[in-house]
Design a protein that fits this description.
Strand order of the largest sheet: 5-6-7
Distance between the termini: 49 Å
Order of helices and strands: HHEEHHHHEEEHHEEHHHHH
Structural class: mainly alpha
Bound molecules: glycine
Helix content: 40-55%
Largest sheet: 3 strands, antiparallel
């Protein structure tokens, strides 16, 4: 009997051991890769100084972007996490240096992506340093973003490059930019930012979500009469399909809505989205989804590691608020374990990007099965959150 109990305990201990994510190993890998990435960034900038951030590797080519690219903030933002993880001043100096390069985007009124571009680096920078100059940048960016809110439609306009396709396009990704508005209200006491965020989020629940809590990608609004013109996609397989990263943005977005408002309807929305994502039968057993849940080519379709990284990070936060905490933590761990085990670049590969196998824009035939900066950012964030280091 005693032997049996000991054996059972041993079995449980080994099982638990196998479940553990080796965070220091994962961070060491990520830091080694990022050292390589920085060398590549600096070499590229010697030739073209207006290129500020590394974005991807496509057809073997290292791709850098200018600061107005929607992904410019992820690289500097990630460096703040390295500093918080290691307390090594080297990362602090690098984070400060590269954060400055996207500063001018605080005045950019031509995009909704200011949360990604400005809040990710400056929000992390402010949390770490409490530098009031960072706070001013965040407030100005929130003012710029607010100019894109239309009260008749009740939403923030996402894209201006809509051409003839849409009158007033709003994409589900836009939920991620609301964090910037909430922080600006906290900093200034001006509730207009907060009200815009709530109105946008409520209309997005109403118009982007389907009965099964999957989301459309692009909803086109009528700014003259209010209401919806049409519901479509840009980056997904079809208008009625579920583009994987869009589902992840929505999950993260409604989780942060609950963080700032404590309104249970946002928690219910995040829970319902999590339920859709986690119970989707098309996702393989490693938890890394295909790029679109409805691509008929599945299982011969590319994965999207970025959607997985965003989902994992969001689930760690949602687990703090939801009664489904245990399930979310288990699912987030599974994704993080898979990413760390089988989706990381070999040291020295991929110009220093940490993860591989993300899909940026398949219908455009671009960034398919590639490393990409936002996958790396949310992966590193998820590693921080796994350790209980919640960054909000
Ligand atoms: N926000 C654009 C994308 O997720 O590709």
């Amino acid at each position: 009997m005693k032997l049996k109990t000991t054996a059972a305990l041993l079995f449980l201990a080994v099982g638990a051991q196998a479940q553990k994510i080796e965070v220091s190993k994962a961070f060491n890998h990520a830091a080694q890769q990022t050292d390589i990435l920085i060398k590549n960034v600096d070499s590229a900038r010697k030739i073209k100084p207006n290129l500020v951030s590394p974005r991807t590797v496509e057809n073997g080519q290292f791709k850098m972007v200018v600061s107005r690219d929607w992904t410019s903030g992820f690289f500097p933002a990630e460096l703040w996490y390295f500093y918080e993880q290691t307390k090594d001043k080297k990362w602090l100096d690098l984070a400060k240096k590269y954060t400055e390069d996207v500063k001018k985007e605080q005045f950019n009124k031509g995009t909704h992506d200011l949360g990604f571009m400005v809040y990710c680096p400056f929000g992390n920078g402010y949390r770490v340093t409490k530098d009031t100059a960072y706070k001013s940048v965040i407030i100005q960016a929130a003012k710029s973003l607010s100019t894109r809110f239309n009260p008749t439609a009740g939403v923030i306009r996402s894209w201006d490059h809509s051409g003839t396709k849409w009158d007033y396009p709003v994409i589900i990704d836009n939920m991620m930019n609301l964090e910037l508005l909430f922080e600006a209200t906290k900093f200034t006491g001006d509730s207009s930012f907060y009200k815009i965020a709530i109105t946008h989020a409520d209309n997005t629940i109403k118009n982007h979500y389907r009965p099964d809590f999957s989301s459309y990608h692009v909803v086109d609004y009528d700014v003259n009469k209010g209401g919806v013109i049409k519901k479509t996609t840009a980056q997904g397989y079809a208008d009625g399909s579920s583009w994987a990263r869009g589902q992840a943005w929505g999950l993260y977005g409604y989780t942060l809505m609950f963080r700032y408002t404590k309104n249970p309807k946002y928690l219910a929305q995040a829970d319902a989205i999590a339920n859709y994502i986690l119970n989707n039968k098309s996702t393989p057993s490693d938890g890394i989804p295909y790029w679109d849940y409805n691509d008929p080519k599945i299982p011969n379709a590319p994965r999207d590691a970025s959607a997985a990284a965003i989902t994992s990070s969001a689930l760690y936060e949602l687990a703090k608020y939801s009664k489904n905490a245990k399930n979310y933590k288990t699912a987030a761990d599974k994704i993080l374990r898979s990413l760390s085990a089988a989706y990381t670049s070999k040291i020295g590969n991929n110009y220093g990007f940490i993860l591989e196998h993300s899909t940026g824009h398949l219908p455009n035939n671009s960034e398919i099965d590639v490393p990409i900066n936002y996958a790396d950012y949310y992966y590193v964030e998820a590693l921080r959150r796994y350790q209980g280091k919640f960054n909000f």
